[in-house]
Structures are given as C-alpha cells and as structure tokens.
Amino acid sequence: MKIGYLVRRFLFLVFVVWTAATVLFFIPRLSRVNPIRERFAEIQRSTGYAPRDLENIIKAFETKFGLDKPLIEQYLDYMGSVLRGDLGVSLMRYPRTVVDLIGQALPWTVILLTVTTLLTFLIGTGIGALAGWPRSPSWVKGMVTPLMVLAAVPGYLLGLLLIYFIAFRAKLLPLSGAYTTGRFLGPELSIEFILDVARHAILPALSLILTSVGFWALGMRGMGVTVQGEDYVNFAEHKGLKQGRIFYWYYVRNAILPQVTALALAFGSIVSAGILVENLYGFPGIGSLLNAAILANDFFVIYGIGMITIVAVGVSMMIIDLTYPLLDPRIRYDRK
Amino acid sequence: MTSLNGAGQIALEVNNLQVTYYTDSGRVKAVDGVDLTLKAGERLGLVGESGCGKSTLALALMRMIKPPGRIEAGSAIIHTDMGSIDLLKLNEEEIRQARLSKISYIPQGAMNSLNPVMRVGKQMIDAMRSHIPRASERELTERAEQALESVELKRSVFRMYPHELSGGMKQRVCIAIGILLSPKVIIADEPTSALDVVVQRQVMETICRVQEKIHAAVILIGHDMGLMAQITNRVAVMYAGKLVEVSTVREMFTDPLHPYAQALIRSLPNLDNKGIFQGIPGLAPSLLRLPSGCVFHPRCEHAMEICKSAPPPKSVTPAGRFVSCHLYDEQGNRAHVTGHKQKPVASP
Ligand SMILES: Nc1ncnc2c1ncn2[C@@H]1O[C@H](COP(=O)(O)OP(=O)(O)OP(=O)(O)O)[C@@H](O)[C@H]1O
Ligand code: SF4
Ligand SMILES: [Mg+2]
Fold first, then answer.
1. Predicted model pTM
2. Which residue, among A141, A235, A323, would best test binding to B if mutated, counting the most B CBs under 10 Å from its CB?
C-alpha cells in the first residue's frame, strides 16, 4: 500500500510540474515584444553599432532559436528538450546556456535563502511559541505586535534603510554584491573569501529575516493559544510534569505542525522569495538573474528559472507529504 | 457496593476552602467555605447543578486554579504514612511533586486528555519520570503495562497512539495514569459523561476496583444520581459554591435532610432505577448576584423569614451527617417545625 501511495504521489508531482510548466510557457509569449530585436536595439543604444541588414539577422536568429515556428510546435520542442535536461540558450547572454547561467546564480540564492529561511523559522516560531504560552512574562507576549509592524514594511524599503544607515552612513558593512570583486577574482575556497561573503550577506539576510519573522511568530502564537487550552496540556500539568517538558513535548510539539508545512513551502519557494532583496543588494543570485531575464524578455531563462521553482515547490510538497505522518501519527499514507 | 472497605484513616481534610473568580462582571465565589473529610478507601459522590462549583473545588485541591481564579482561604490536608501536608501551602515545586503521587485527577474531557502525537506508553512514562527521575526505563515500562492491565486494557496499548483508541479506552488510559503512583486521593470529574451507558458502568467499576486495590479515597463528580447510589459510600450535595448536605448514600436516598437535597431526590424517576438529575423548580442562582441569607431561599418550599437574612449554620448530626439549613440546629436536630410545611420525603 505504501509503494502504491509513493507511485501515485510521484505521478501527481509529474502532473503538477507539467501543468505549471505549460502555463508558464505561454505567459511570456502573450507579450508581443521580440527579445532579439530588443537586444539589438540595446546594443545600438549602448555602442552605437547597428548592422545594416538587421531584419535578416533577426530572422536568422529566430530560425536558430526556433522562434519562427508555430507556438504549439515550439512548446512541444521545448518540453522535449527539457525532458532531455536541456533548458536551451539565453537570448540576452547568447551563446551562454540557461543551465550555465542558473548554475552560476543558484548556489548564491540557495545559501542565502536557506540560512535566512531557517533562521526566520526558528526565531519566529520560538517567539510565537513563547508569546502564546500563558506563563510567559507580558513583554514576551507583546513581542509579536512590533514584529508584525516590521512585516508590514516592504522588504525593499527596509533594505534601503539598512543600506543607507548601516552601509552608507556608518560604513559598517559593504553596500552591495556577494563578495569584494577587487579582492577576489571569483569564488574560491578560503577562510578570507567565506568571511567576505558572510559580511556581504548580513544586510540582505537581515532584510529578509526582519520582514518575515513576524508572520512565523503570528502563526505560531495563534496555534499556541489554541493548544495551550487543550485538555492534554492541562492533563500534563495534572500529571505533575515540569513546565519545560509540558512546554516542549505537549505544547510546542502540537502547535508547530502547521508551521512545519509552511516551512516546507517556504523552502520550495526560496528561488523566488529573494527577488526584490537580491536586486536591491546586487546579489548575484537567481532573483537578480530572473529580474534581468524579465527585462530582456529572455524566454528561455525565465522558463528555466520557472521550471526549477516549480520542481522545488513540488518536491518539497511531496517530501512534507511523505514525512508528515512521522510528525503527526493521525495522518496516514493510506488515508484519502 | 455501598460498604466502606476498611475505611478508617482520614485521607483528606478540607477546611473552609474558598475560591473566587475575578471576572469582568464581578467576583464569582465558586467555592465558598467548603469543609469536607474523606477517609482512606472511601468513595464520595459530589453532585450539584451545572456551574455550582464542583470542578472548581476539584481543581483547587489540585492547585490548578488559573487566573482569573484565586484560592482565597482554607486548607486541604492530605494525611500519609509519612506525615501530613497542606496542599494549599505547598510551593510550585512541592505541589508539582504532590500531583499524581499524593492526589490525582481524572479529567472531565478524557477524549482529548491524551497528547495526540505521543504514544500512550510514553505519556505514562513521562508522568512517572517527573516524580521518580532515576527509575530505569524497563521498570517504568513494566509498571505502566501493569497499570494498563489493571484497567482491563491490553499491554499492547502501551505502544499505541491515542487516535487508535476508543473513547472508553482513552478514559481507561487516563485512569491508569491516575493510579500510576498510588495516590491517597483520586478525583474523577464526570469521568464518564462522554461515554455510552454500558461503557460508563464498566469504567466506573474499573475506577472502584483499582481504587480498592490501592486503598485511595475517591471523589466522584457527576450528575447521575443513580450511578452515584450504586458506586459511592457518601454523597455531598453542592449548591451555589457551598456544600448543603453530606450523608451516606442510604441516608441521602431515604431521608435527605436539606430541602435542596430533598427536591433533588424527589426529582429522580424512581429510587431503585438509575435516573439522571433533571433539575428542580426555579432557576439556578447566578453566582454573581447571590440571594441574601440562605442562597437557596428563593427556590425553597420551607423558606422562613430568617432564611432571607441570615446564612444557615453548619450542623453535624450525631450520626455524622453534615447539613447547612435553618431547619436544623447546631446538633442537626429539626429545630423549626412550622405548620405550612409539606411532609418530609421520608422519615428515619
Ligand atoms: N475560568 C473561569 N473564569 C471565570 N469564571 C469561572 C471560570 N471557571 C468557572 N467559573 C465560574 O465558576 C462557577 C463554577 O464553575 P465549575 O466549572 O466549577 O462548575 P461545575 O459545578 O463543575 O459545573 P459542570 O457541572 O457544568 O461541570 C461557574 O459559575 C462558572 O461561571
Ligand atoms: S435555610 Fe431556609 S431557605 Fe435555606 S434551605 Fe433551609 S429552609 Fe430552605
Ligand atoms: Mg465541571
């Protein structure tokens, strides 16, 4: 029965990814902008170079990338090559491939967002748990409100403030980038480099954490308030358990269940979660790449990033589905 | 089932217990000067209308009154072989240790009293470990499985999750937890109200059997007078935060002293049948605005002038019955006999 469930769950994942990828394929095509023409227009603006037979060159490129075929045919071609692991070439950085560009940007995003997502989850859930616990001092219970105010501030605005006061005025931390380009030619494996990256990552991380920790705290407090009034928490006290044990094993352990689902979804969407902040800090991650691709109408890069986002969300949902029964024994694989 | 099984030693002595809830609309005296004595091995039924303060009394003994409630006064002394302790004077850590080991509580809502994400056995071991931290895992497991057997559950329940158990089984698990450390006093707050009649009876019989085994005193809270009659030794009737009468089951059913207790007994369908208390004429008083004098006087058919102004004395009859009513003098003799009263329900 468990194997059957696994197979069904995997087929469902494939279906979700395929559906989302199809929708994703057609959306950028609704715009009538021709990315190749745009690219040459931009070259002309910046360098003054304008080839004489521009129309022919554009035609040639369109044929090369298959953009002159009917949309349906393009769709089938693209799906076919995706299955072969080929995400195509970038229109804006030709001849570099999409896989190459994403491969360069992805590690930055994954590191930054994995760390911030985990930290936000731990801090927010911790504060929320304490805020919902009746025995907490009142200042702890009141902590969620200022965090919610902070969460209402748009991330880029908070980021701008941090840049202005901490990086620009106080000069405590670098303004932008992922590492000091003058000091290092490229990423390398050394203590100095890692420390340098960490220094650059502090402000983007802070912007991400401060603007979302309130949501985690609010969610956890809401569940906490419900759970602390449950009979089993009361009965635990009747049993003479120590407060710490009741807090963790009877209260947090039950209140955290929805938070864990949310965490899995948050991990699935880390690829897209940092777009604004990455752009603001000139952080060379997926967010910055996607922003550039959208501006340049670079279909294939947009598709590529979209595909990994969808797969990431789908896979994390599948993982949480499969592991949830370990967290909550009431949920079982074989139930509908 | 109404014999006292080797009762003798006093297990619990409650004196002048007072609990108040400070609500937005005023102070609610939910327990107002309750005195009660329980002997080891004895089973006392505590009955009264909804909201009269039964659970509050139980929670006060467990020291589990939460804000806005407060224990205002009184003492609750548990006598053990190692001496006597006043539950109301213990500090946080001491009362934590006393819970389950000296006095245990089987909750009203056993349906949700078990942690849904923890196996039954772990919850039992949890309870024991917080009192005997150095015991070995094997020893505790053995004890937990024995406790499960003593409430007629299979040992395999140890490894199950609460959602795999029926309501009656969950209630039994709660009982098994309640007796793990052989407490002197067990309070069962409507332990069966969510169960069907057959299971109710079985669960009550289980409580009685394990209670006899560990020779604990039991306070059984409930509405079902019929069940009380079959299970308990004595019955305490509570009205608006006060005890109005405490008598043996036989006395209570054949010759109730207090007019409220009389009305209660009369409202039962049949003395021999089980019957659930249906209620008596008049409205239960709001604890926020209690009548002056005897709080029962607006509903009492024997009410006299004095009842409107002076609270009734607490009397103990030579036979040891407790009653609080102006109809009786300090020795429990019928003091005021006036013409227009209707005849007593029964005479001794
Ligand atoms: N947490 C609380 N805050 C305010 N008032 C309360 C609280 N708990 C109980 N009360 C009040 O105290 C009184 C006694 O309540 P209690 O729960 O002890 O009654 P009970 O006899 O157990 O009733 P039931 O038979 O319905 O269980 C009620 O009038 C109730 O309104
Ligand atoms: S004191 Fe008076 S009012 Fe109260 S129960 Fe006795 S007779 Fe009735
Ligand atoms: Mg109650």
1. 0.84
2. A235
